[in-house]
């Protein structure tokens, strides 16, 4: 028989975006779509993450990563973007900091792209459309690794 | 135009629309349009290049675009909009991007390789798109927020 203790109390649950020391995970969002940027922000901030930067193309993403380093815990990276695509930007970020936690978020789920991203050092790959559960699950897993 | 190229777009549109609008989507009768075709008011266009080349257009009226935007924003707890502004444009563009991305992934898994351009958005009344070289296949999708026409014009290289 289940006792009351088997059911987690929602009020006691630690927000996913907060580290053990009580400070939020700091996220850099790289995406050329205002819609997606807002959507990711909405999902992550509701769980206590802090968005510390937004970049609208790969080039800006790499620059912002370098500026913010070492105060970035996670990067969400789109793939199809003007100026510099997300796979190239991922490569440059990993070149600069091989410990970087980068999660690819793209409408494209092509196997070769997924493989290439993971080989280059991306921690995870999320295919759009985004739903809250999928995004949080994958991002939290990436931070644990 | 071979049906192998069309089906992935139709399937992707169906699955993405059902998911993001969280509503029933019905496919209308297919039809062909040639040369100049009128556009309903808001059209997101994505270019394709590779094994096949051409373009896919997601076409709807301004009213439908506003309804669809608000359905997508609302379902995520985001602020809805009164008029079709930059946020509306970004939302419809992203809708086109999600559908095309999923279609290209399906096509890729079937062995076709090509790339797509990021979507561009056109808005305006009485617009026409002309391309003498290729016929377009129109796939209407009916939703409670209005009709979205998927207009596919591709040819083999």
Automatic annotation (TrEMBL), chain A:
Q: Which domain of life is it from?
A: Bacteria
Record PTM 4-aspartylphosphate, positions in chain: 78
Q: Which residues form the signal peptide?
A: none
The UniProt entry, under InterPro entries, shows: CheY-like_superfamily (IPR011006), Sig_transdc_resp-reg_receiver (IPR001789), ST_Response_Regulator (IPR052048)
Where does the Response regulatory domain start and stop, copy by copy?
A: 26-143
Q: Which UniProt keywords apply?
A: Phosphoprotein
Enumerate the SUPFAM superfamilies for this protein.
CheY-like
Q: Which GO terms describe its biological process?
A: phosphorelay signal transduction system
Report what the protein is called.
Answer: Chemotaxis protein CheY
Organism whose genome encodes this protein: Spirochaeta lutea
Automatic annotation (TrEMBL), chain B:
Q: Does the keyword NADP apply?
A: no
Which keywords, in A-to-Z order, does the entry hold? Answer: Chemotaxis
Q: Which Gene3D superfamilies match?
A: CheC-like (3.40.1550.10)
Q: Residue limits of the Chemotaxis phosphatase CheX-like domain? A: 42-141
**What Pfam families would the database entry show?**
CheX (PF13690)
Coiled-coil region(s): none
Say if the entry is tagged with keyword Cytoplasm. Answer: no
Protein origin, superkingdom: Bacteria
Q: Please cite one Gene Ontology biological process associated with this protein.
A: chemotaxis
Q: What is this protein called?
A: Chemotaxis protein CheX
């Amino acid at each position: 028989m289940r006792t009351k203790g088997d059911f987690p109390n929602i009020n006691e649950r630690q927000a996913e975006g907060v580290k053990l020391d009580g400070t939020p995970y700091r996220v850099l969002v790289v995406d050329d779509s205002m819609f997606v940027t807002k959507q990711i922000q909405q999902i992550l901030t509701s769980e206590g993450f802090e968005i510390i930067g937004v970049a609208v193309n790969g080039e800006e993403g790499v620059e912002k990563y370098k500026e913010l380093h070492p105060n970035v815990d996670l990067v969400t990276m789109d793939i199809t973007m003007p100026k510099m695509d997300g796979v190239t930007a991922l490569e440059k970020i990993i070149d600069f900091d091989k410990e970087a936690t980068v999660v690819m978020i793209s409408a494209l789920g092509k196997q070769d792209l997924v493989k290439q991203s993971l080989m280059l050092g991306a921690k995870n790959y999320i295919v759009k459309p985004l739903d809250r559960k999928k995004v949080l699950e994958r991002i939290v897993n990436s931070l644990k690794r | 135009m071979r049906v192998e190229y069309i089906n992935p777009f139709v399937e992707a549109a169906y699955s993405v629309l059902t998911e993001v609008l969280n509503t029933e989507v019905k496919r209308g009768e297919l039809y062909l349009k040639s040369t100049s075709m009128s556009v309903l008011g808001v059209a997101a266009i994505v270019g394709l290049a590779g094994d096949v080349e051409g373009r896919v257009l997601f076409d709807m009226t301004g009213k439908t675009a506003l309804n669809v935007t608000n359905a997508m924003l609302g379902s995520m707890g985001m602020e809805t909009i009164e008029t079709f502004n930059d946020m509306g444009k970004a939302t419809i563009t992203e809708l086109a991007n999600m559908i095309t991305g999923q279609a290209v992934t399906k096509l890729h898994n079937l062995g076709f390789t090509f790339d797509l351009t990021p979507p561009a958005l056109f808005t305006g009344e009485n617009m026409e798109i002309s391309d003498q070289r290729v016929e377009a296949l129109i796939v209407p999708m009916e939703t409670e927020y209005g009709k979205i026409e998927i207009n596919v014009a591709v040819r083999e290289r």
